[in-house]
Amino acid sequence: MGNFMGGSAYAMARDIAEGMILVNAGTFKKFAPGEMRQLVFELDKVQKETRADQPPLDDTQAIQKRGRKLSRITAALQIINSAMLKRTS
Q1: Which among 10, 27, 43, 86 would be 20 to 30 A from 2, CA to CA?
Q2: Residue 42 to residue 31: CA distance in whole angstroms
Q3: How confident is the model at residue 2 (pLDDT cuts 50, 70, 90)?
Q4: Separation between Cα atoms, residue 2 and residue 31, nearest integer Å
Q5: How far is CA 65 from CA 19, 55, 61, 62, 73, in A?
């Protein structure tokens, strides 16, 4: 085990949400199915944390930042799910 950028699955999930790691289908080629499931779990956790953080309604920049984080997480989850489906077929 140890293909996670940043050292751990949680660190990688956090970096994906922040935009420090850009993911595509090739990003997960070296990952084992167990590692991808672990990353999905951590991405879900970061997604819940991000959704729980409600910025003030008058802070437009914070609202946009939160939306971008959620968008990156959603895209990463879709890419991982697609990669997992391709491996099983």
Answers
A1: 86
A2: 15
A3: low
A4: 9
A5: 10, 10, 6, 5, 12
State pLDDT tens for residues 6-64: 889 999 999 999 999 999 988 888 899 999 999 999 999 999 999 999 999 999 999 99
Structure tokens belonging to residue 88: 């099983």
Q: Which two tokens stand for residue 2?
A: 């140890």
- Cβ(24)–Cβ(72) below 8 Å: no
CA-based nearest residue to 1, from 47, 43, 37, 45: 37
The end-to-end CA distance of the chain, in Å, is: 24
Structure tokens at 16: 């994906």
Q: Which pLDDT value is given to residue 20?
A: 95
Which amino acid makes up residue 7?
A: G
